[in-house]
Description:
Blueprint: H1 5-17, H2 28-40, E1 45-49, H3 55-67, E2 72-76, H4 80-89, E3 96-99, E4 110-115, E5 129-138, H5 142-151, E6 156-160, E7 183-187, H6 192-215
Parallel strand pairs: 1-2, 1-4, 2-3, 4-5
Antiparallel strand pairs: 5-7, 6-7
Amino acid sequence: MKANIKTLAINNYKKFCELEGSDFIASEFALETLLTIIRNFKINSILEIGMGIGSVSDTVLKFVHNEKISLTYCGTENNDFCLKMLPQNVDFFDEILIFSNIDCLPKKKYDLIIIDGSDDSLSKLRAFCNAHAMIYIEGGRHEQTTKILGMFPNSVHVNVITLKKNPSYAHEDRSVKSYIGGGQLIFITPTFKMKIFWLKEKVSTFVKIKIRKITGKVF
Length: 219
């Protein structure tokens, strides 16, 4: 039976909100978006830049095991606390290849690259992208988004957002009056299917921003 994406994203987000070091974890909406991408585009290789305490990797690996998807997962992390917490927090942790930074990665290309942290070597990201790779940048991260878009002149980009407000259990004690954080989705050389997905998201984001303005809060 296929996993319920929304339920898994919410439950795993709740789990990580209660863990030490949860200040900068991805939102439940970001997790839901990533799982939708994996299912829709049949992703079988992922590189996560900045694994943190494991909220993204744990959610993704639970999902692909449920869906019986064969997937390679690689990540970077150099924070001692995070490296200590990852084995404790992530189911199927032994299936992840972890390196300290991009410079240490083996020469392999990926279908989906998730940026959930910082790395001074992002300019080298091109070498790790498959021909039609997707890049998802969690949150706003305008500087990183601009830098990556400059590297891929044929890319298309959309700011994926939601109209849902932060739940009472949100990390960092975020206000329930503010919107849940989204992310930046980039298709470096989009296929027709990717262009359709991108267009739908662009229209959806346009409408949601209009609604946010009407209600008096854009971000």
